[in-house]
Amino acid sequence: MTATPRTALPLLAAAQAQKHVTHNEALLQLDALLFARFLDRDRTAPPSSPADGDTYLVHATATGDWTGKDGQIAFASDGAWRFYAPFIGLAAYVVDEGVLIVFTGSAWADYASILNLQNVPLLGVNTTADATNKLATKSSALLFDNIGGGIQAKLNKHAATDTASLLYQTNYSGRAELGLTGDDDLHVKVSPDGASWFEGLKVARATGLVTLAGDPTSALHCATKQYVDGLAKGFTTGSLLFANASGAIAQDNAKLFWDDTNGRLGIGTASPDSVLTMNTTGAAGPAVLSGTGFHTIASQSAGGRLWLWDVAAGNPSIRMRRTNGTFAAPTGVLAGQNLALLGADGHDGTGFAASNTGGLSFIAAENFTTAAHGTYFSVQTTQIGSVSIAEAFRVWDDKRIQAGGAYVDLSYSYQQPTTGFAIAVGNTAGRLILDPAGALASGTVTLPAAPKDGQVLRLSSTQSITALTLSPATGQSVVGAPTTLGANAFAEFTYRAANTCWYRTG
Asked: What does pTM read for this prediction?
């Protein structure tokens, strides 16, 4: 044998001359391999001025003095390079990387990749592990990162009666615990001192139901899920819950209802047809306003506004509807009945007026049918020094305005008749203006067929009419009818509904 079997150190031969050469070569080789230290393992070209003892691991495709020495250990000595082949198990420290590597026989591997940490009895990171805490760490934070997907932290216990939990401590004394403590339900517990424990929440493993600890009848205590479920039995979809006279949660589906499908609230109805539908049928109003179905009280409102409707791309509107009979069996509205009333009054220092002191009324002008919905509009006021409300003016169904019993009528009919004419004056014309080309021998004017009480009709002509016939409609009469009419002359008549008669008033 001329060399050692593992490190290939040269051996001295018997009777060898110049034994010091072989011995020195072995020492140099030991200097390169013993506790090996590589300055670099990535170089492909040797440094230009290496110091004796500098050692490198030659990288693949080496050049210069390292050509053909890929994977060997280059050791500088006396201005030259010595090369040695690594052997299995050789360990080295890579200076520029600060890592330990070991030769496996075919490649160099980082020490960390071949360390076997299986079944390590104790492991302490920056602290000391013990028989109970076999893995211990003292750190500001712990990081468990993923390798490109999800990640789980698992706590596995041996039996259902054991505990698998996270224990939160203050100075090594327990204050909160989360986990499977004594069974397979999820528990959340807290402690003021690490000795007395109070359970705040439990999630049943079989159903997922959550139980909140506490007395549900005590102030600031949470109701348990079972308690809420018990109260919820029998509730109707859409019911809004409230506290009844005894303080218990209750429902009245017919009087308070939420239509979640359409986003509608019903008060007094379970079938709201608008965003807010109120049905006060049969409901008693406040004592001071008997029969009132909707009452709003406000001490003060900004700018004096109590109600405000904002509408986008439409017309704000308030609509009131009336029927006779009942909602179940409605009948038509009759002439003279009030369709809607907007009233107002004020406080006199003693109380509010018993009735309105001003109002706007919408009144049926005829019996309502599917083909007839005639209405008129009435404005009522109370005169100064009086407490009695009275109609101030009225807007009739034919658009005429009646104020204080007299008509304000700006309507007229303009005609250019010829002799022998026959003109019937419409119900909404307040004046008939005749403008013939010349004097007329004769003509007939028929008065309005359906005049209002107090209605005024003025007849005038720019030319004379020798024989004028003023004819009332069926059932009417005329007092003081003219038989002729001079040029630019006129005759005025006022209708009295009580006796269906036209009286000449001008």
From this structure: 0.44
